[in-house]
Amino acid sequence: MFKKLIALAILPLLIPLFSTAQYQLSGKIIDKETNEFLEGAHIFVENTFIKTISGTNGEFLIKKLSGKVKVKVSYLGYKTSVEEIEITKNTVFNFSLIRSPIIQDEIIITATRAGDKTPTAITNVNKKEIQEINLGQDIPILLDATPSVITTSDAGAGIGYTGIRIRGTDMTGINVTVNGIPLNDAESHGVFWVNMPDFASSIDDIQIQRGVGTSTNGAAAFGASINMQTLKLNAKTYAEINNSYGSFNTWKHTVSVGTGLLDGKWAIDARLSKLSTDGYVDRASSDLKSFYISGAYYGKKSMLKLNVFSGKEKTYQSWYGVPSVRLNNDEEGMKRYHDHWLWSSSSQRINDIKYSELVNSNSRTYNYYTYDNETDNYQQDHYQLHYTYEFSRFLNLNAALHYTKGQGYYEQSKLDSKFEDYKLNDIIAGTDTITKTDLIQQKWLDNDFYGITYSLNYDKSKVRASLGGAWNQYDGDHFGKVIWAKYASNSEINHQWYFNNGLKTDFNVFAKVNYQLIKKLSLYGDFQYRQIDYDIKGNHDDLRDLTQKHNYSFINPKAGVFYEINTNHKTYFSFAVGNREPSRASFKDADPGQTPNAETLYDYELGYTLILSKFLLNCNIYYMDYKDQLVLTGKINNVGDPILINVPESYRTGVELAFSIKFSDKLHFDLNATYSRNKIKNFTEYVDNWDTGIQESKELGKTDIAFSPDIISNSQLTFELIKNFSISIVNKYVGEQFIDNTSSSNRKLNSYVVNNFRINYSFKTKNFKEVGLNLMINNFLNEEYESNAWVYRYIDSGQEYLMDGYFPQAGINFLFGLNLKF
Asked: So what's the architecture of 17-100 in CATH?
């Protein structure tokens, strides 16, 4: 009965969506100068979800329209045309497009982007959507409302060290590119967004491809890829000041300027940003600076563009999390940390200090680190030189040279450290021998990443194809310095106790083709060959010899079909293979002769789209079958560090739904939801037994993959009160997640619901082209939740215990922004 009442309540709202449009609009898209038909032009009906693509003779057909509609037609290399058309009967209207006098920026990312007929699951985020929520938080947080996404923040408020998971896959399995150039760190496979503060202010659009997706450059896509394009040409001169302030003493100051198009050929854009915050967690502060500058020459047939961007960060460490015993105010459990020597197995002094700090801290904002300068300090500079040449309207070439320089360190205070661990001599004082000292250390990373990317793109008649690839090399030095010691022993200034180098060469070539077999059916094929050579030399910080070499050759095929049932219904199916080499950490931590295998993913995707005037539905079903996926099992190496182990069989399968409803021009509602099952088929756990000094193992059979909730949903209700004044209520639900791979209810993150409130208002004045006001009230119902965690288990005196760290996120907090455009 309740379900029937709900259906009756919703039905009146849905009736207008299906009943108002009665007529059809048809026509052709034509080159105004040559009268040539333009196939593949994009036709949009504004203020609706209706869009289509012109056929082989430039023809298009849109059904179920009525009244006055604005139709926008865009085609790469042409000026966009917008026409208002009165639809009172079946109407024929032809669009004549004018060639752009200059080449366009979109060509740069053609080869790595999925098109409208590419059979894979994608989400596009445009510049307007980014700007509405960009008040200083990192890019993962700005993508939090997209399908199958979960984000986390070490500092608890979205600035500093943040992470993102897509379909349960963390940042090491997500390929990220900027203008087609790899961003993932070559050794760790991760992306450290803290090195790119306020980069969102220089992004024009983002495409997320879930699953293996299409072939791209850089790290393997094992859960998704994120393809970012920086600012495209703004033909008019502009200047913009953007300031925001919020909870936890958060500030963002951004100045952006652009020359517009000079002499019809030249353009320069620049941005300078400074961000700072105290963080939600104690001492989890960030001091961040960045800039972006782009200079370009635009010709009729060619484009040369130089992008330079840089980020510099100083972030107080909050990587440890909050022990569950502190979160739960468990006094007995906190005392156990002290009694079991969990902070230091050899120093009573350290255990006493850490115990005192733990019991006297706030249960949700506790930070393990207390040394004044326990900070991460890093700068990363990016240089990208892009060249594009258009041989004809159907054929173009892209090539890019790139160079990234990264350098920095994190500083730590270490108490009661053994001299021998730092290649120092014990001190003999009379009859006494001093074997330990307090010291301050810095662990440095100094790396260079450079290479070339390229693509040849063809788009004519029934064929859209790309031949592309890249050659990239990473050269990274890892070393440690002792910058101060209570007892100096035989050390010198900046005593270096370890050094190792990683040299990694990554080559790939790919070919993609989308072929329109018949009017409604297109076929997709994609083949990539990737080769990796990785050479590590030197010693680790524990003085182990890391010297080793690894070589991999991967073949990654992809194929699919896209079928347009009619203008309202579309469907696709694809199969893709991805292969991934282990990360530096897996090589570093593995015992001699125990190098892990590469991982393989077989990805099946089935999708359906329904497009009506005021209603849009996307449905995607996926099955991701992993071979030799690397996971944590509790197993340790011969020096006691946890290691990743290949599990022969595991999978992720799920359904992703996304729909949007325009109830009116003023009110619309968006919802996406993912239901998934994520399993390891035969899992064996390992637990340290302190009584015996060996690990105990137990076969658990089928278990859940850690950090993979069964349900994720996002919704947004937006109401435009007056023109350019909108209010949005955003809701996110994340189901419970296990924090290890054992499916134990004792080790999990509880489900949570977070509600955010947003106001966006813009207006014009005599002195400003636009004044923008933005207010975000995050978690306004003050939900207490944790978004990430780690755990270590051990047996002592025959009983199992654990040591863990959870990452609480901020309660109710706000950000307010003022944007002035000149």
From this structure: Sandwich (2.60)
DSSP 99-113: BPSS--GGGGGGGGS
Instruction: Show the tokens assigned to 786.
Output: 């944790």
Report the relative pairing of strands 375-392 and 266-277 from DSSP bridges: unpaired
Environment class of 812 (CB within 10 Å of its CB; exposed 0-12, middle 13-18, buried 19+): middle
| Residue closest to 791 by CA, chosen among 634, 647, 646 | 634
What is the location of CATH 2.40.170.20 in the chain?
238-298+361-821
Distance CA 207, CA 174 (A): 13
Contact 453, 399 (CB under 8 A): yes
pTM of model > 0.85? yes
Please give the Cα distance from 88 to 220 (Å, whole number).
52
In this model, does residue 11 exceed pLDDT 60? no
State the chain's mean pLDDT as an integer: 93
Please give the average per-residue pLDDT across 615-639, as a whole number.
95
The matching CATH number, chosen from 3.20.20.70, 3.40.30.10, 2.40.170.20, 1.10.10.10, for 238-298+361-821 is 2.40.170.20
Q: How many CB atoms lie within 10 A of CB 117?
A: 21
Q: Which residue has the tokens 């659009």?
A: 205
Residue 12 has pLDDT above 50, yes or no: no
| CA nearest neighbour of 388 among 461, 457, 472 | 457
DSSP string of 343-410?
S-SS-HHHHHHHHHHHHTS-TTT--S--STT-EEEEEEEEEEEEEEEEEETTEEEEEEEEEEEEEEEE
Amino acid 20: pLDDT: 52
Write down the pLDDT at residue 68.
87
Numbered ranges of CATH 2.60.40.1120 in the chain = 17-100
Nearest to 532 by CA among 503, 509, 556, 504: 504
| Range in 22-31, 318-327, 572-581 with the lowest mean pLDDT | 22-31
Q: What average pLDDT does range 672-676 have in this prediction?
A: 98
